[in-house]
Amino acid sequence: MPFFRLPSDFESLSVDVQGDHVAIGFQNGQVLCFDIDRRILQSVLGYALWTIEQAT
C-alpha cells in the first residue's frame, strides 16, 4: 500500500534506511529525509486490511 507519492519528475537515485529514518536522494540533487513510526504504520496498515476484508 503506497503511503507516500511524489511527482513523476522526482526520479530517485538512492535510498537509505536506518531504523525508523528514511532518506531518498533524487536526480535533481534534493534529498528527502523523514521518520516513520513503525508502530503507527503497522496499526494503520492493519486497519486498512481489515476494512478491505470486511468489504469483500
Element layout with pairings:
Blueprint: E1 12-18, E2 21-26, E3 31-35, H1 38-55
Antiparallel strand pairs: 1-2, 2-3
Organism: Penicillium roqueforti (strain FM164)
Protein name: Genomic scaffold, ProqFM164S02
Overview of the structural elements:
- The chain has one domain.
- The protein has a three-stranded antiparallel β-sheet, with no helix packed on it.
- With 56 residues, the chain is α+β, with helices and mostly antiparallel strands.
- The model has no long low-confidence stretch (mean pLDDT 82).
- It is elongated, with a radius of gyration of 15 Å.
- It contains one helix and three strands.
- This is Genomic scaffold, ProqFM164S02.
Indicate the mean pLDDT. Answer: 82
Task: Order the strands across the largest sheet as they lie in space.
Answer: 1-2-3
Radius of gyration: 15 Å
Low-confidence stretches: none
Helix-strand pattern, N to C?
EEEH
Number of discrete domains: 1
Q: What is the beta-strand fraction? A: 25-35%
Sketch the major β-sheet. 3 strands, antiparallel
Distance between the termini: 18 Å
Number of helices: 1
What share of the residues lie within helices? Answer: 25-40%
Protein name: Genomic scaffold, ProqFM164S02
Highlighted features:
single chain, 56 residues, alpha+beta, three-stranded antiparallel beta sheet, 3 strands, elongated, Genomic scaffold, ProqFM164S02
